[in-house]
Design a protein that fits this description.
rod-shaped; 5 helices; 3-stranded antiparallel β-sheet; 14% strand; alpha+beta; 4-stranded antiparallel β-sheet
Length: 225
C-alpha cells in the first residue's frame, strides 16, 4: 500500500512539472529493512541468569573479618600485671641480750612429783538402778525351766486351760506383756493361782505353788482330762 501511495505522489509531482508520468518507468521503492526481534528464549535465558546472579549475591555468606576472628584472642589475652618493686627490707633491730639466769635457781625447772594413777570406779546411775528395781523379773536362772508337758501328769491336770490372746516381746523388759484368758499381764502379775515369772521371745515362764514351768505361745494349752 505504501508503494502505491509513493507512486501516486511521484506522478503528481511530474504532472505539476509538465511531464507526463511514465507508468512503465520503474519506481524505486524505498524499503526499510525490518528490525529483527529478539527471540523470547533469549529473554528468558537472560532473566534466569540475572535471577541467579541476584540470588547468589543475596544468599552469599558474609565473609568473616580478620578482626572478628582475632577479637576472642584479644579478649583471652590476659595482661600480666606489672612487676611490683619490692620495698627494701627494714633493718632488723637486734634486742640487747639479757643476762641468762641460772636454770637451777628457776622454780619452773623443778619437775612436779609423778601423780599416782588411781583405779576408776564405775558407779551405776540412779536411773539404771531404778529400772532394774522396777523390772519385776527375777535374775535369770542358769538351770533350764521345764516345759509343762515334761512335768508329772498330776501337775498338768492342776493347771487350768491357757488361751493366749496376745504376746508382745520387746528388748525393754517393761514393754513386754502377754494376754492369757483375757487377762492383761506383765512379769510379776498373777491370775487363777498362776504367776507370770518371765516373758520370753518364744513364750512365757509361769509358776504355780513354787513350781516353775514354761509354755509356748504358738498354741494354747489344754489341760489333760
Amino acid at each position: 500500500m505504501s508503494y502505491i501511495l509513493e507512486a501516486l505522489r511521484k506522478s503528481e509531482r511530474e504532472r505539476h512539472q509538465g511531464r507526463v508520468p511514465d507508468f512503465h518507468q520503474q519506481v524505486q521503492m524505498i524499503h526499510q529493512p525490518r528490525r529483527k526481534s529478539v527471540p523470547a528464549v533469549v529473554w528468558l535465558a537472560l532473566a534466569l541468569v540475572f535471577n541467579g546472579v541476584v540470588m547468589a549475591v543475596v544468599f552469599r555468606p558474609a565473609p568473616v573479618a580478620d578482626g572478628a576472628v582475632s577479637a576472642p584472642e584479644r579478649m583471652a589475652t590476659v595482661v600480666a600485671p606489672a612487676p611490683q618493686t619490692q620495698a627494701a627490707p627494714a633493718p632488723e633491730t637486734v634486742a640487747p641480750a639479757r643476762p641468762t639466769k641460772n636454770i637451777e635457781d628457776s622454780p619452773a625447772a623443778v619437775a612436779p612429783p609423778p601423780r599416782s594413777e588411781r583405779p576408776t570406779v564405775i558407779v551405776p546411775s540412779a536411773r539404771a538402778r531404778a529400772s532394774a528395781a522396777q523390772g519385776g523379773e527375777p535374775p535369770a536362772s542358769p538351770q533350764r525351766v521345764p516345759h509343762l508337758v515334761e512335768l508329772p501328769l498330776s501337775f498338768q491336770r492342776s493347771v487350768p486351760d491357757l488361751v493366749f490372746n496376745s504376746h508382745v516381746y520387746a528388748s525393754d523388759p517393761l514393754a513386754r506383756r502377754v494376754m492369757i484368758n483375757d487377762h492383761y499381764l506383765r512379769a510379776g502379775d498373777a491370775f487363777s493361782g498362776i504367776r507370770v515369772d518371765r516373758i520370753t521371745e518364744e513364750g512365757v515362764e509361769l509358776s504355780k505353788n513354787g513350781k516353775r514351768f514354761r509354755v509356748g505361745v504358738v498354741r494354747d494349752w489344754i489341760a489333760p482330762r
